[in-house]
Each structure stands twice: as structure tokens, then as C-alpha cells.
Amino acid sequence: MSAILEVKNITKIFPKVVANDNVNLMVEKGEIHAILGENGAGKSTLMNIIYGLYKPDSGTLIFDGEELNLSGPHEAIEKGIGMVHQHFMLIPVLTVAENIVLGAEPEGITYDKKKANDLIREISQKYHLEIDPEAKVKDLPVGLQQRVEILKAFYRKAKLLILDEPTAMLTPQETEKLFEIMRELKKQGMSIIFISHKLEEVLEISDRVTVMRRGKAVGTLKTKETNEQELANLMVGREVVLRIEKSEYKPGGVVLKVNDLNVVDQQGVARVKDVNFEIREGEIFGLAGVDGNGQLELVEAIMGLRPKKSGTILFYGKDVTNFSTRQLYREGISYIPQDRQTDGLVLDFTVAENLILREYKDSTYSRYGVIQYKKVYENAEKKVKEFDIRPPEYMLKARNLSGGNQQKVILAREVGYNPKLLIAVQPTRGMDVGAIEYIHKRILELRDKGAAILLVSLELEEIMSLSDRIGVIYKGQLMDILDGKTAAKEQIGLLMAGSRFDKTTLEAR
Amino acid sequence: MKSILKELYIPVVAVLIAIIIGSIIMMVTGFNPVIAYISLFLGAFGNVNNIANTLAAAVPLILTGLGVAISFKAGLFNIGAEGQYWIGAIVGVWIGYSFTGLPWYIHIPFALVAAMIAGGLWAGLIPGLAKAYTGANEVITTMMMSYIAIYFSHFLLEFGPMMDKSGTIPQSPVINDSAVIPFLIRNTQLSYGIFIALVAAIFVYWLMFKTTWGFEMRAVGYNQKAARYAGMNVPLNMVLSLGLSGAFAGLAGAVQMLGVQHRLYDSFTSGYGYTAIVVALLANNNPIGVIFAAILFAALGTGSQYMQLNAQVPGQMADVITGLIVFFVAAYRIAEVIKDRLAKRQKKEVKA
Fold it and tell me: Could you say which of B212, B231, B350 has the minimum Cβ distance to residue A45?
């Protein structure tokens, strides 16, 4: 086998950060090569260099036997490098064919619709990527939109396809379908770079895997000869506990009870429809679902951040339906919101101030409306130590902390006061293996102390490994509630896509 | 300590660059910048009287500047300090001349507090409520309320209920002696009002940085969403911080009336409410910084006359320097924003 792409000693330095440190990589013709690494390991930087978005500070790229000196993505495309970004770059109101040929239309000035459609049909047949060229992109499910992106690359005659976190937005079934496509493409001799931070996906689909850590390529392994543990250790740089040790499930009394909850948004569209569930002491209730299916609206309605159309919320039997957010906090409910930077923290406040963002009015921290900063700093010092927030300087603005440490500040604030109920929305989003391990440990500790936990996450893995019971939400409806121990991934996946009888899933398969 | 230096760095550099560019302009137009700056300085601080007049000019700037700084810190752009100043002045003067027989220690606080309430309502009631509950842009509403306040004063003074009946000049009667804030130094404009301004600055600092209310205002100002998620009442905070902002602008009007003018003259603008925006900007909304920024702009004003006399440099030169300072402070902030954006973008890119 010969190499399609050789990356030699690539270094890219950003102010304060060495994003790529003397990276070497060789992708062979017809292989699926995974790039595995935590957030900030330099995967995207490397891909952006290969795709011509960045110029490396030093090092060379050899593509198909020819040294590349790219001035921009257009040149990379010309040479035969195609990239599918994590966030699709499609125009929703245009048809599939229009999106694919956009910028490289088959004939001169006028757009020949029929010819474009025929061309796309031809390509999609060749690569077994069935799609209707005349469908509007906005009407397609995510999995098919991704297919459009892939076709875009082939239409431009890609010889190497880079997939940047392609499974991030997909349901398990869509992921499986994507993998089938990738295998099929491989059979036809296509070379694929698959970027991911999910170990099992890498193990399932790739031939070889290169692990990146802190800007360095720390090793290239044959997938067959490695395992999850080895990859995780390489990724983090130390021994990692992969399997979460969960103590026995001993549910107590009902903490939260949601009855027939309905929520409509400002446009009057129903976002949450007749949702019923309860969470008990010592229980983690996981809410699974594809992004945008009403999870956020459900949680915000419970937290008093969004008006409810109908329904009741009971907390330890007490009706808290119309409580304000602050009243709910005072009842002993904690909330880790979805976006730490826009919802969870005041970035221009110090860590110490962020740690009392909710409690500043409590008698512990203020007297007659005057904040007792001595107490605030004592608390901060304790929390910084307890939650291992780095750097351990509580006078630093939250803005200057890394994402993982910002999340720890929120965690310290929300978990540190031993809440009776914790609502955590994507508590580990965008965090690396080490930090995820830590946050999961904290959440489990809370459960073992007898608290109830509502865990909302888009990561099915996370839901499945932590939850005692799993609710699946689809278009605002709670499809089913499953036992966390026995629930199968396929089963949840189908529910996430609105059950097996739904048309869109059939089309996607 | 380090953070104080860091905060000082921007305005000081901005002022220095403005001075340098000012010299270049003077040299090009055929003036000697050294003589010009020396006379500017002497005019502002050359003797006790000049210092007193500079400080006197700083008083209304400190108070309106505080008002604007409060709103900026709370994430709201109160552009209408000028109008709130006028409302404060009207109420202060009216109480000053219409109540008789009160001892000074009741009359003065009465006038000042009433002016603060009036200024606070002027900003908080309509612009504040409109912003909080309908999202109406406070830049527009406070500005419009400014015009209403100024035209309202015309109505009152030009043959209206507040006009001094003993003459035909559109001005109010003189306030009673019991309402006069006495002068601190004879034959200057400096009254005890300077102490009111200094105490106000310290009070605002304490309020913003040491109290729960200040904590809320700053949290809402920096990140409304996070404040709401933390259980704070965001709309209420908007109304209150705009109200507080207006209260200090109103206080400025009353202090100026009771301490310096002693009556209200018909005019189109005092100018303080607008300079206040610049003062707050240069001070980076720090209440203590407002004192120094206000003194600087006051000095440019008082010194410019002396500069015109002694160095024959037109007084407008001081305005040019003021403009340059504003430009460079603003430019620095813009540069910061751009730097932030770039840093964020790079961070994103580094993320794999």
C-alpha cells in the first residue's frame, strides 16, 4: 500500500498555545484512519492545515506523491481533499443538487437543473449514497444532510475525505448507517480520515488510529491490536477509569413529580407535550434525546425560567409549579445549565463571586444587604480546593479559566451545597476524558448520598452508564421510560428517532 | 495593586497619545505646544483660585458621570443624563425658592433628595419600565426623555409657572438663603458641593462592589442570562439601576443649582449630561475613576481660556484634545473587543 497523505513534522503555534507540535501522520490509500484526542489536543488544527485553512509554521504535506503548499481550501479541494465539517455548511432552502453543485456548477453561467440532478444521481449511485437530488435540504433529517456534505466532496472529485466529528449530531441508527457508507467507500478505494473523541466508534470503524495529546501525535496503532483502555490512557496520558463503578440502586421517596406538563414557545409551538415522570431519592433519571426535542424547554419550565402552559410540578409532595427560580433554589434544587459560558457563569466575575452567584443573598454571605467578602473568600478557598479548580486562584476572572475548570466552578456551586435535587444539562459537554471522569464521580456521590438527579445529555453513553432509569424524549413527548440496567442502545436509539414506525427513520436506513 | 495599575494604564496612555497628537496639530498650525500646554495647566491648576474653579467644574461632571457609570456597569446605556440633570435642577430650584422658614440642614437635604427622586423616576419610570417589560431600547428612550426635560424647562421658564415675575428674562427666582450650599473659597465657583460629589463617588463604589444590590446590577450588566438562571430578577434590576443612574444625574442638577447658580436659567443644554458619558468611559465605569476623569475634563475646560489668552491657541484646541482622548479610549476598547474575538476564535480552532 502507498500513502495518500503524509504529514511531516508539522508545527503550528498560536499565541500562547502550541496547537500542533511536530506532528507526523501517514494515511494510506483505502484506509479509514482515525484521529483520536481530547478537546484541545490539536485534531481540528491539523485538519484545518491539511484542508488549507491554516498555514503551518513548519513542516510539509505530501498528498498523492506531490508536496502541497496550499493557499486556501479551494486549492485543497482542487487537489482532491474533501472535508465534512462538524457543523454542516448547507443552505437549507436549496435542493440537494443545488447545494452540491453550488460554486462549481456543471455548465457556464446558467444553471442547468436537469443536468445537475442527473449528475448527482450518477454520483450517488456510484457511491451507493442514495438521495433525492430534488429534495430541499431543510426537509432532510441530519443523517441525510450529512450525506449531502459527503456527496459535495465527491462531486469535487475528492480522493481523501476528512470527517470531523461526524457522529456528534447523529442518532445511533444514523451513526450505524454512516459507518456502512464509510465501509462501502473504503471498498471502492477511498481514503478517509475520521476524527473523533469517542473510543468505541474509533474501535469499530477504523483500520488504524493516531492518538493526539496536547498538540502531539503520541502514537499510531493498528485498531485490531489495541483496546479501549490503551487508547484512553494514551489520550489522557495516565491510567483512566473507564468503567464507572456504580453502587447498588436503592431508590427512596419521590423527590420530583412532573404531571402532564405542557410547554409552548413564544411562537405558540408546543415544545413539551403531556410529560409525566418522577424521580426518587438516590436515583439518576437520564433524559435521552436528539438535540432540540424539548429537553431544554422541559428543564427550563421546571426551573421557573419558562412559562408552563399546563401541568404541575411537585417537589417532595409540595406544589412548586409557580415558584420562581430563586424559590426553587431555596427549596434545595440545583441546576447545571447547558452552556456554562452563557448560562452558568458571569465570565467577568471572579471565581469567588461566581461561586456565590446564587447564594449571595443568604445570611452566610451577606448581612443587611452588604456582602461579607471575608466569608465569600473563605468559601471560595474551600471550594477551589475541594473541587480541584485550577489554577487555584479564586480572584481570577472566570473568563481566564479553561472550559473544564469553568465547569468545575459551576459544579462546586451547584453540588457543593448538597442539593436534594440536581438538574444537570449536558454537564460534560465539550470536556475531556479526565474531567468527565471527575464530574461523573461527583454526580454519583450525590446520588449515593440520597439526592435525586435529572441528567439531560445528548451523549447516549453518558446517559446509559449513569442512569438508573432512562426517559427518551422525541418532539416534546416522553416516548418511554426504561430501566437503566436493561435498556439496550438500539432500543433507545429507535425511541430517540420517534419509534421504528416513523417515516424519516425508514428513509434514513 | 496590579489590577489598579492595569486599569490606569488605558486612560493614561489614551491621554498621553491625545496630548502628543494635540502637539503635532499645534505645531502644524503654527503654535508652540509647550507654551500651550503649560498655560493650559496653569489655567487649570496654577493658583488656588484656578484649582478651585477646576474642582467646581468637576462637581457636576462627577455626579452625572457616576450616574452614567452606574447604568453602564449594569449593562444599560443611559444617554439621557442631561435630561435627568435638568429635572433635578428644576426640582432643586423649585424647592429652593418656594419653601421658606426651613433651617438649612433640612432645606438642602430636602431639595437634594427630592431632585434625586425626580431624576431617578425620570430615568427609571418610563425608559426603565419600557426597557424591562417591552425591550424598548433605553438609548432612544432616555435620549427622548432628555428633550422632554429640556423643553419642559423652557415651558416653565419662558413666561411659565417658574419664571421670575419681577423681570422679563426667562429665569427662575433666586433660591432662599437656607437652600444655598455655601461657597468653600471666596470669589470662586467652588462650593461645599465638592464634598457631596466625593462622598457620592465613594458611596457608589461601595454600593456597586460591596452590596448584594451592586452584585446583582453587575451580574445583570455582564451576563443577563446567567443572572436570570441564578434566580435574579432581571427586569426589576434594570428599572432600579436606570433609576439609580438618573438619581445621581438629578443630584448633579440640584447641587449645581444650590451651590453655584442659585437659580435656573433658560438654556438648551448644560452639556454635563453628555460629557458625563465621556467621563464614565474614560473611568471605565469605576466610581473612583470618575472623580479623576471628571477633574481632567474640567481642567481642559478651565485651562483652555487661559491657554487662549497666553498662548493665543484657540480654546477649541482643548475640545480637540478632549475628542482625541475619547477617540483613543474608545479605540482601545474596540481593540480589546477585537482581541477578545480573535482569542476566542483561536481557542475554537485549537479545540479538536
Answer: B350
A263 beta partners:
A272
- The answer to whether A370 faces chain B, any CB pair under 8 Å, is yes
Rounded mean pLDDT, B107-116: 96
CB contact under 8 A, B230 and A37: no
The pLDDT tens digits for A303-348 are 999 999 999 999 999 999 999 999 999 999 999 998 888 899 999 9
Which among B223, B225, B231 has CB closest to A325? B231
B293: amino acid identity, one letter: A
- What pLDDT sits at residue A177? 87
Pick the CATH number of A3-236 from 1.10.390.10, 3.30.420.40, 3.30.70.260, 3.40.50.300: 3.40.50.300
Residue B210 to residue A373, Cβ atoms within 8 A: yes
Distance from CA of B285 to the nearest CA of A (A): 14
State how far Cα B99 lies from the chain centre. Answer: 28
Range B179-189 average pLDDT: 91
CB A415 within 8 A of CB A422: yes
Query: Is domain A250-332+419-509 annotated with CATH 3.90.70.10?
Result: no
0.90 surpassed by pTM: no
ipTM over 0.90: no
Least confident of A83-92, A424-433, B324-333: B324-333
Residue B317 CB contacts under 8 Å (≥ 6 apart), including other chains: B22, B25, B26, B31, B36, B304, B307
Q: How far is B236 from chain A (nearest CA, A)?
A: 14
The mean predicted confidence, pLDDT, of chain A is 88
